[in-house]
Amino acid sequence: MKKILISTALLAGVLSYAGGFRVSLQGVKQLAMAHTSAHAEDASVAFFNPAGMSFIPSKLSIVAGGFGASNKVTFQNLNTLQSTQTDNPLGTPIYAAITYKPIEKLSIGFSFSTPFGSTIQYPYDWEGREMVQKLELKSYYFQPMVSVKMADWVSFGASYIYARGSVNWDKAVTQFGGTVNINDDKASGHGYGFGFYFRPDPKLDVSIAYRSPVDMKAKKGTATFVAPAQTTVNTLLGLNGEGQDSFTATLPLVEEYTIGLTYKVTPKWLISADFNYHGWERYSKLTLDFANAPIGNQADPTILVAPKNFKNSKTVRLGTQYAFTNMIYGRLGAYYDESPYSDENFIPETPSFDSFVLTGGLGFKLKKFGVDVAGGYAMPQSRDVKNNYLGFYGQAKAKAFYFGLGLSYNAF
């Protein structure tokens, strides 16, 4: 019994490292319009589609911004009626990008973003403490890119992705009256992106983009056990004198397909729409290889393989912008985002819900400078949790909101 419970707990922690959800906060202007992508006004388009750099009106463009993301999850055991709420700190995703046209038909750029990551914290004595007490996830994408204008109305762009990530996760191991910490701050991976950007008419922009999956290689992960009978635990699990064992794993971050368009109804009013398709199906299973601990479920007892059963998901977005003056812009949007897993595969480490999100914001242009503010309010649908694999049942609800501040500079 000890072996099974420890295996499940370790798996849950590392699964959560893979993300379980995509954080759509890579542009303040974009968030205000439901995080739509077909906007080639400054360097913020670089993350969404490198081909859009060719249509930025400035030769040199620089953007940077950040967000506050607040979310609360409530889980209720329907048998005991006991309710637990997370006490999550404020998340702070950031982004920055720069683009430059050395010659008329060629644009180069660089984008930095944090597309996966969050922190979730439950009370340390809650009923799911053997799955998670606290989990901190971080990811960073570094993307150099290039775009070529193939004609006045179309461009092609491509980017290379270098990703770094970290996880710091605490959970209880009640069999030993202790805890375990899963930690890896040196995971890395590589990927790419490419896209086409079209402007067949001055009123219409069309963006088609693909971002590849990134396999995060965790080569130096550490599991640290702390228990009153530390010597016994170290001997039982083959740990070192500090109660530690190492593990390796390949942790996938998913691919994304995007089709977006923006239409200028009038010189002051535009409407944007996006369709995103996320390849969560890659999470069919996850394999962990421990150095010594015999907590696996394969012929080699140090190898643990467990199902995830995620499914591909879709997001539909609709946004609009209206220019009140040449300096002030109002923006609104709404989108619907699908969860990548069913009620039967719900996990408390990275809780995910089908969500309807309302967004809005303002933009201010001061000659070459721009200042944008945005906010979003999410309305996740409650879930009936039925995870037989983890033995986790009940009802989960959530609420979340976002706000952001972005700066832009189109130099010349």
Automatic annotation (TrEMBL):
Keywords: Cell outer membrane, Membrane, Signal, Transmembrane, Transmembrane beta strand. Its main location: membrane. The keyword Membrane applies. It comes from the Bacteria. InterPro entries: OMPP1/FadL/TodX. It is found in: Cell outer membrane. It is a multi-pass membrane protein. The keyword Membrane applies. Belongs to the OmpP1/FadL family. PANTHER family: OUTER MEMBRANE PROTEIN NMB0088-RELATED. This is Outer membrane protein transport protein. It comes from Chryseobacterium terrae.
